[in-house]
Amino acid sequence: MDIIKRRNFIQRGFLTIAGMGSLWPSPKSKDHSKPHLITHPQKTDVLIKVLGTAQDGGIPQIGCYCKNCKKARQDPPFERLRPSLAVLDFIEKKIFIIDVSPDISRQYDMAHERMGFARSGKKNAPHGMLLTHAHIGHYTGLIYYGYEAMSADRIPVYCSQRMGDFLANNGPWSQLVNLQNIALHFLEPDKAFSLTQSVKVTPLKVPHRDEYSDTLCFVITGRSKTLLYIPDIQSWDAWDRSIREEVESVDFALLDGTFYSPEELPGRDLAQIGHPFITTSLDILKQTANKEKTRIYFTHLNHSNLALDPDGDPIKRIRGEGFGLAEEGMEVSL
User: Fold this and answer.
1) What is the average per-residue pLDDT within 244-253?
2) CATH number of the structural domain spanning residue 60
């Protein structure tokens, strides 16, 4: 099993694991046309590629000129795209996108190039898309598969019943359904289904702000490894499952790290935040990280996140306790 980042790397025996050192590459690292290869690419049947790690507003966030947003405008490697993953099956030559963000055009290029597909000759659409919930960073990229853009043909979209009903009954998303640009497939929580012969996905329901839909997370199982993806959750205490047990049951976990600590939110009612702080997750999962069975990374980072400072104490604590920040271009072999 291998993890690869677009930044610095540490070789550990048979594994190639994303380095916990500097996370800020030179601008040329934005070129995903020549992806970093894993140690034994011929043995990699299933790959998870991280396409975006920012909270729904992205980094930089529109209209914001805080320290992090200004840096992202001036220094392209500091930019972070909105949350999304690609599931690549190299045996069946199929690409699936988890969370279709407003940055989907750039993000699909990353997945498309990693798979090695030719660009010309046909519409280049994913073989399926999986949605966690109806917040803007996670589904609004669907519109680019509609009549005014790609005009795709019945791309399978896997989501909860409530999410599907929202898409089918509200414009402009209903046009995608009516014109058969997408085909809705409803998921049942806790019931595994197969994307390909090598990839199984189990949706789990999680508590979150559910204005338009409920919220799912996904357990993705490949030929030998398993990854847990929870980009959004109200809190670990609000879930009817033990986050420690769920994380310890997988090999990799990408968890909601929207805010590092309450320091980012002066004057705010913390009960209304709707995300666990990274500091809370570090305390809960420290023993799990120390066991070194599960590699744990934080994603869905808000533009205010204190861990974004590459020289700050928050990122030093995260790394020092055996955790990491997910990075755009990071790869996990399942």
Assistant:
1) 97
2) 3.60.15.10
In a domain, 296, yes or no: yes
What is the C-alpha to C-alpha distance for residues 18 and 21, in angstroms, rounded to an integer? 9
Task: Report yes or no: 215 and 206 within 8 Å, Cβ to Cβ.
Answer: yes
Residue 83 belongs to some domain of the structure: yes
Q: Are 125 and 150 in contact (CB under 8 A)?
A: yes
Number of domains in the chain: 1
Residue 302 lies in a domain: yes
Inform me whether the pLDDT recorded for 26 exceeds 70.
no
Residue 127, domain extent: 45-333
Q: Which of 13-17, 55-59, 271-275 has the lowest mean pLDDT?
A: 13-17
Closest CA to 308 of 101, 137, 107, 80: 80
Instruction: Flag whether pLDDT at 182 surpasses 50.
Output: yes
Within a domain: 208: yes
Q: Is the pTM of this model over 0.85?
A: yes
Q: Which DSSP letter does residue 234 get?
A: S
Residue 237 tokens read as: 């205490």
C-alpha 331, offset from chain centre: 11
